[in-house]
C-alpha cells in the first residue's frame, strides 16, 4: 500500500471511530483535505449524519474532488433523508457537471424540502454549459428556463429569489460568448426585467434589479441573430 493510500485509510478509520460530534467533524475535515478519490464513499455517507459540521466538511471535500464525485453522488442520492439530499444537491450544483441536469431539474420542481429546491435552482444557474454542443446547450437551457417560469410563481419568496440568482448567472454566461443563441439571452433579460418590476417581494425585485445593472445598455434587438 502506498503512503497516500495508507494516509487515506487511516483518515477513513478516524471518521469511523470518532466518538463525539466534535471529533467526527475534525476527522471528516482531515479526510476531505486529502482530496483523494478513495474518500468519496465515506464523505457521501457523512452527508446523512446528524452532524452539520461534519456534513459541511464532507460537502466541501466532495466539491474539491470535482467531476469524479458526480457519478457516486448521483448514485447514492438519499430519497428519504432530506438533509443528505440537500447536501448532495449542493455538491452537484457547485461542481456544475451537465450530467446533473436532470436531477437538478427534478429536485427544483418537485422536492418537498425548500432547502433542496433552493440548492437545485442555484445549481441550474451555473452548470458548465460549454461542455455541451450548441444544440444540446440550447435545448437544456430551454428546459431550465421553462422550469424557472414555473418556479417564479412559487409563494415561497426564497425560491423566487433563488430563481433570480440562477437567471443572473445564466445571463452572464449568455453574454460572454457562450453557445446560447441570442433569443435565449433576450428572454432571460426580459424575465429579469419583469421580475424586477412585478414581484411582490422587495428583496426579489431588488435582486433582479442588481442582476440587470451591468446590462442596462443592452437592447434585446441587438441579441437577435442576423
Oligomer designation? single chain
In the CATH hierarchy, the architecture of the largest domain is Alpha Horseshoe
| Backbone structural class | mainly alpha
Order of helices and strands: HHHHHHHHHHHH
Give a short account of the largest sheet. none
Number of domains: 2
3D shape = elongated
Low-confidence stretches: 221-226
- From the N-terminal CA to the C-terminal CA, the straight-line distance is 61 Å
Query: Would you tell me the overall average pLDDT?
Result: 89
CATH superfamily of the largest domain: Leucine-rich Repeat Variant
| Total helical segments | 12
Rg result: 20 Å
Question: How many strand units?
Answer: 0
CATH topology of the largest domain: Leucine-rich Repeat Variant
By CATH reckoning, the class of the largest domain would read Mainly Alpha
Strand fraction: under 5%
Helix content: 55-70%
Protein name: HEAT repeat domain-containing protein
Keywords: Antenna complex, Phycobilisome
Pfam families: HEAT_2
Describe what this molecule looks like in 3D.
With 226 residues, the protein is an all-alpha fold. It has 2 domains: 95 residues; 129 residues, Leucine-rich Repeat Variant (Alpha Horseshoe). Helix 3 runs antiparallel to helix 4, helix 7 packs parallel to helix 9 and helix 8 runs parallel beside helix 10. The longest helix has 18 residues. The chain is elongated. The C terminus is likely disordered.
